């Protein structure tokens, strides 16, 4: 991955830090849902590596589903317009749903997803986010389980992308500005 690494200004969170954060969140979920069977709802595509990592460390029954929502539309910041590209496949009515997010940035996507799931009649909805960027929040919303708090920087890796690239990095890093300002 030498070619990708040259585009990274600096590594903010190592693979080991991500795994440790995922284990911590998994144990919190396990404790909070010990008498339930939650639905882990992965937001595609970015949260896929995070969900896979968290699931490995949960020792209770869970079921999984996927939803694909977009708000960036290829840019470097949220457009404020949320679009559902792929809806949940299962009936989530009366289920306890945990949204698995890669990052909570402006909060718009998460807020929209929570409202949408409530409209579908879920019993409860919480969110586990690998990365939280509280200083960029523009709506009142908070993840219930947070892996890592990040400063305001353009992050890529471990699912986070720029124009669908860099998701495969095993760490999270800051993308060099010249890459996305060409």
UniProtKB/TrEMBL annotation:
It is found in: Cytoplasm. Pathway: Purine metabolism; IMP biosynthesis via salvage pathway; IMP from hypoxanthine: step 1/1; Purine metabolism; GMP biosynthesis via salvage pathway; GMP from guanine: step 1/1. It is an enzyme of class 2 (transferase). CDD domains: PRTases_typeI. Its main location: cytoplasm. GO terms for biological process: GMP salvage; guanine salvage; hypoxanthine metabolic process; IMP salvage; purine ribonucleoside salvage. GO terms for molecular function: guanine phosphoribosyltransferase activity; hypoxanthine phosphoribosyltransferase activity; magnesium ion binding; nucleotide binding. Keywords: Cytoplasm, Glycosyltransferase, Magnesium, Metal-binding, Nucleotide-binding, Purine salvage, Transferase. Residues 12-162 form the Phosphoribosyltransferase domain. It catalyses: GMP + diphosphate = guanine + 5-phospho-alpha-D-ribose 1-diphosphate; IMP + diphosphate = hypoxanthine + 5-phospho-alpha-D-ribose 1-diphosphate. GO terms for cellular component: cytosol. Its cofactor is Mg(2+). The keyword Glycosyltransferase applies. Belongs to the purine/pyrimidine phosphoribosyltransferase family. Purine salvage pathway enzyme that catalyzes the transfer of the ribosyl-5-phosphate group from 5-phospho-alpha-D-ribose 1-diphosphate (PRPP) to the N9 position of the 6-oxopurines hypoxanthine and guanine to form the corresponding ribonucleotides IMP (inosine 5'-monophosphate) and GMP (guanosine 5'-monophosphate), with the release of PPi. This is Hypoxanthine phosphoribosyltransferase.
């Amino acid at each position: 991955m030498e070619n990708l690494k040259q585009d990274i200004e600096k590594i903010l969170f190592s693979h080991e830090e991500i795994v440790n954060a995922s284990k911590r969140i998994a144990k919190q979920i396990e404790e909070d849902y010990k008498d339930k069977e939650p639905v882990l709802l992965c937001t595609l595509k970015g949260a896929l590596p995070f969900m896979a990592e968290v699931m490995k460390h949960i020792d209770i029954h869970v079921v999984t589903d996927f939803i694909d929502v977009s708000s960036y539309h290829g840019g470097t910041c949220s457009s404020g317009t949320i679009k559902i590209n792929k809806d949940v496949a299962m009936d989530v009515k009366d289920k306890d749903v945990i949204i698995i997010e890669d990052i909570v940035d402006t909060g718009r996507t998460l807020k929209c997803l929570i409202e949408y799931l409530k409209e579908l009649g879920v019993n409860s909805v919480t969110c586990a986010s690998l990365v939280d960027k509280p200083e960029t929040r523009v709506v009142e919303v908070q993840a219930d389980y947070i892996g890592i708090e990040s400063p305001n920087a353009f992050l890529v890796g471990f699912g986070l992308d720029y124009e669908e690239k860099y998701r495969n990095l095993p760490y999270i890093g800051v993308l060099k500005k010249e890459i996305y300002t060409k």
